[in-house]
């Protein structure tokens, strides 16, 4: 082997013995660059299709497309409340589900008065598990349920690790974040399949920020559940969407960052999200959130995390 005493000599030596490899590596590099380029183009196209093209369309007739009634769990707060109102604006009758009777009552009256639709509510504590669904089943019997929105969820701004969390809290997360979405779908999807139309929207957080193991796992469960359920029922005309918003203004301003653009009000968010119904099986539902995710995918992770930390200070 030749003595190596300079980079130039080493380079010449390597190039002489490996010139085929260099060409091979150049082709690999070109293919990799082309693949990345195509992915960026596809991501931009998807973003435009979902958040620009759909905005140009006039409001759809959701009653005709999916059915007369929409059921919204966790309907008294933030995205759930705004989503219910948005569906009412589209002429759907609304059934609100939550555990605060007084709020349900006033919200139900407000929606009926403001949008001229029929409303009703079911006051149940979803953290109690199986026993509460008998009442829900009774209330939904014989109704033409077109859309189910699973928004009920428990979320802690200061999450406790599994080691620190009380057992009751762990059960609450399992019952409200996981079981409620599955059991509610089990109650209404068979009717949708029979009528060959309907939609299920499962709302989970799209944020990968601080979270405890049990809450993070509940998100993963609902995401997989949505995907698989979609595969099972799509041929029957039932659409399943997993909605993964990032920060929505109102309740948790501290985790939303400094740019209001990235934390729309629940009403603005719901208006955008409803437009994506039927068009994407998994979406953030809002263009600025989609942009945020896109940026996170294409810029280095450390830069993304630093900007996120900075924005929360
Ligand atoms: N808001 C956001 O910024 C945001 C962003 C991304 C994702 N999300 C997702 O949206 C979902 C809800 O989060 P959120 O922050 O919007 O919470 P939220 O404002 O507290 O809404 C949760 C809803 O679920 C209801 N709920 C909670 N426990 C219940 C129980 N045991 N029985 C019946 N209803 C119950 C709440 O009713 P009460 O308040 O009456 O208990 C409330 O209406 C979560 O999956 C979260 O990951 C929210």
TrEMBL record:
Gene3D superfamilies attached to this UniProt entry: NAD(P)-binding Rossmann-like Domain (3.40.50.720)
Reaction(s) this enzyme catalyzes, per UniProt: 17beta-estradiol + NADP(+) = estrone + NADPH + H(+); 17beta-estradiol + NAD(+) = estrone + NADH + H(+); a very-long-chain (3R)-3-hydroxyacyl-CoA + NADP(+) = a very-long-chain 3-oxoacyl-CoA + NADPH + H(+)
Subcellular location: Endoplasmic reticulum membrane; Mitochondrion
GO terms, molecular function: estradiol 17-beta-dehydrogenase [NAD(P)+] activity; very-long-chain 3-oxoacyl-CoA reductase activity
Keywords: Lipid biosynthesis, Lipid metabolism, Membrane, Mitochondrion, NADP, Oxidoreductase, Steroid biosynthesis, Transmembrane, Transmembrane helix
Xref: CDD domains: 17beta-HSD1_like_SDR_c (cd05356)
Entries under InterPro entries matching the protein: 17-beta-HSD3-like, NAD(P)-bd_dom_sf, SDR_fam
GO biological process: steroid biosynthetic process
Enzyme Commission number: 1.1.1.330, 1.1.1.62
Domain of life of the source: Eukaryota
One Pfam family cited in the UniProt record for this chain: adh_short
An annotated GO cellular component: endoplasmic reticulum membrane
Pathway in which this enzyme or protein is active: Steroid biosynthesis; estrogen biosynthesis
Membrane topology, record value: Multi-pass membrane protein
Primary role: Catalyzes the second of the four reactions of the long-chain fatty acids elongation cycle. This endoplasmic reticulum-bound enzymatic process, allows the addition of two carbons to the chain of long- and very long-chain fatty acids/VLCFAs per cycle. This enzyme has a 3-ketoacyl-CoA reductase activity, reducing 3-ketoacyl-CoA to 3-hydroxyacyl-CoA, within each cycle of fatty acid elongation. Thereby, it may participate in the production of VLCFAs of different chain lengths that are involved in multiple biological processes as precursors of membrane lipids and lipid mediators.
PANTHER family cross-referenced by the UniProt entry: INACTIVE HYDROXYSTEROID DEHYDROGENASE-LIKE PROTEIN 1
Sequence similarity: Belongs to the short-chain dehydrogenases/reductases (SDR) family. 17-beta-HSD 3 subfamily.
Name used for this protein in its record: 3-ketoacyl-CoA reductase
Naturally occurring in which organism (per UniProt): Eleutherodactylus coqui
């Amino acid at each position: 082997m030749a003595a190596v005493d300079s980079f130039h000599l080493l380079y010449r030596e390597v190039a002489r013995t490996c010139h085929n490899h260099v060409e091979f590596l150049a082709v690999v590099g070109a293919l990799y660059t082309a693949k990345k380029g195509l992915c960026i183009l596809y991501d931009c196209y998807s973003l435009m299709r979902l958040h620009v093209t759909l905005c140009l369309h006039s409001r759809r007739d959701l009653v005709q497309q999916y059915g007369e009634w929409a059921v919204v769990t966790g309907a008294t707060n933030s995205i759930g409340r705004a989503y219910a109102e948005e569906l009412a604006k589209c002429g759907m009758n609304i059934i609100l589900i939550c555990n605060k009777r007084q709020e349900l009552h006033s919200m139900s009256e407000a929606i009926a008065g403001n949008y001229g639709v029929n409303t009703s509510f079911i006051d149940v504590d979803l953290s109690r598990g199986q026993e509460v669904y008998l009442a829900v089943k009774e209330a939904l019997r014989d109704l033409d349920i077109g859309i189910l929105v699973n928004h009920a969820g428990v979320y802690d701004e200061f999450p406790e690790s599994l080691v620190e969390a009380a057992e009751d809290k762990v059960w609450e997360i399992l019952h409200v974040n996981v079981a409620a979405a599955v059991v509610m779908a089990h109650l209404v999807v068979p009717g949708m399949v029979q009528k060959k139309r309907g939609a299920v929207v499962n709302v989970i957080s799209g944020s990968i920020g601080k979270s405890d193991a049990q809450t993070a796992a509940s998100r993963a469960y609902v995401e997989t559940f949505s995907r698989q359920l979609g595969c099972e029922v799509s041929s029957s005309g039932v659409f399943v969407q997993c909605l993964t918003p990032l920060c929505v203004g109102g309740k948790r301003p501290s985790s939303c960052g400094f740019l209001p653009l990235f934390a729309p009000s629940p009403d603005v968010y719901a208006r955008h999200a409803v437009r994506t119904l039927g068009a994407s099986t998994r979406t953030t539902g809002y263009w600025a959130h989609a942009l945020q995710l896109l940026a996170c995918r294409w810029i280095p992770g450390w830069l993304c995390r630093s900007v996120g930390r900075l924005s929360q200070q």
